[in-house]
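Folded chain entry —
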Amino acid sequence: MNDIPPLAKGYEISTDPDRIDAERVHRWLSTDSYWATGRPREKHDRAIAGSLNFGVYAMESGDQVAYARVITDMATFAWLCDVYVDRPVRGEGIGTALVGTVREHLRPHGLRRVLLATQDAHGVYEKLGFAPLAEPDRWMALVFGQ
């Protein structure tokens, strides 16, 4: 499966951590996501520092317009999280292209599985090969809180 949708013209994806606009990403996630509302900036910065980060940038202005991060050992497992596309550019296929790029970036490492959780974007992820857990009763979680 190498069917990454093309990124909308005028945008580029980068894993360069120095390009991440941490303030912008924190604002997006802490105020406009259902999964990270109220996340403190210090916790957000630690999450970025311990993750493989993907940013989508407008080539003309350099502004970041989308973000995703992956927590992984780059050998057996990855967790895709904090996928966010700025509201003004939603509907341009940026999210699908971003997740497809993440998938292809991880593919050569031989990971057994890449997991994610979503409340409302199943269709985006299904287009790229994600599926519900085959045996959800085998999975457990330890939850300390937010």
Summary: The CA atoms of residues 47 and 69 lie 9 Å apart.
